[in-house]
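Supplementary Methods S3. Input chains for the assembly prediction are listed below.
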Amino acid sequence: MAREKYIKMLLMACASLSFLAILLIFLFIFQESLPAITRIGIPNLFSAAWNPDKGQYGMLAFLIGTLLSTLGGLLIGAPLGIGTAVFLDQVAPSRMANVIRRGVELLAGIPSVVIGWFGLIILVPFIARITGSAGYGIAAASVVLAVMVLPTITALGAETLRSLPPELKEASVAMGATRWQTIRKVLLPAGKEGILVAVVLGMGRAIGETMAVQMVVGNSSQLTLNPFQPTGTLTSNLVTNMGEAVGNFRAALFAQALVLLILSMILIVSIRFITRKKEA
Amino acid sequence: MHENGYKFELEEMDLYYGDFKVLEDVNLEIKKCCITSIIGPSGCGKSSALRCLNRMNDLVDGARIEGSVVLDGEDIYDRNYSVVGLRKRVGMVFQKPNPFPKTIYDNVAFGPRLYGIRDRETLDGIVEESLKSAALFEEVKDKLRTSALALSGGQQQRLCIARVLAVQPEVILLDEPCSALDPIATQRIEDLLSDLKTRYTIVIVTHNMQQAARLSDYTAFFMIEEQGDPGKIVEYGDTNTIFTKPTDERTERYITGRFG
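Predicted structure tokens for the full assembly:
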């Protein structure tokens, strides 16, 4: 019995430690960004001007860059991922599905720096050639992010479809629905919560992705909606500047990290909201 | 036009799942506007036989048919036969009620919408008519826009029948439709099927011999000799004869409950 008790305490310690780590990270980032709020001020922090030398610490360009590249990554990655999931679960013969599933799993294991490298060497010059721009920017970042969210969305999407009761498909087919009609009118609507969760988790990955984005986004502080103009994201700006920042500059970076953290938390809460609605 | 009173004619039909022979030498004529029941012990292939009639076995990898299955004079396994058209004419109700996770209305309107009916009033009419035919309308008329999954098991099964009726099929196949229901819900389904048989040809698989005896006009008794053998029809005839003076000794032993 004593042994049971020790194991229980050990597990409890593990759980508490993880929770404590998360809490401390949050508190630390909040504390470090506090000077930014008091000394730099919210209006300056969220303005469009980023000139740390002149005391301008506006993150708007990076915030927009993060949101646009995430959106772009999902616009490309989500349909591709959902399509692949449907193909794996409903269309592909089982041997072919296994090969593709392995391939997608492999994609999930590729370090982001490798995907970024690929983006830098192949994608950026390609975009430069067809658009006549420098090639860096949101468009390149979106494609790179699409590749990175693909495994998440595909794997979770396929899992959602596989967990649907087979009776649903039988009912639809027996009504005379074709395979495509069954997918579109029965299976996808029945799995929409799970697919939405897959997309939101993919979004979480896209928002936080740093290395691959930093390599292709151009790292300028220019506020732009043009996907072929170099710009920056919250993550790329953090990683580019964190080495040399002191004082207010450093505090401004922490404020950006805080905003990033809050964005991710909003996503996590929205997942809980989606899944809770399903259970109700 | 093919007029001999038979809706389906199965001739020397064998069914294989891969190398495994599930059914052998099935000969069966199914009369129009009658209820034909298929009985037999578990694993004798009676559900598989039913699924040959709307080609649901097509969903099974490696499923293959030999012999012929003829509906109104046409072989439904003919290369040019439209499976989608077949399933519109031959509806199916399953063992476990399987409404879609949609509203009651959308469940019933599913088939008509598949076949291109978009007009709101037409759909409203079809939904109401189908629910009435399935003896469900009075219970759900005030909650057509709520989820079908909130209904009881018996109501869900009648909804599935309404969903089939909505496309005006000619044949309704039922695969042990009452096995998940309580006796009262079962009674309602049986009453409903008796009403429906004036307009539809009904084939029902059941493990409940009283149900077959009460409900059906014709009965086919399937069984397998040994584990691993294909299922065969032992005896087929009008229900009265099968249950009162069966010619085959195995039928008699089964219906009197001495095996199976």
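The mean pLDDT of chain A is 92. Residues 33 and 197 of chain A are 31 Å apart (CA to CA).
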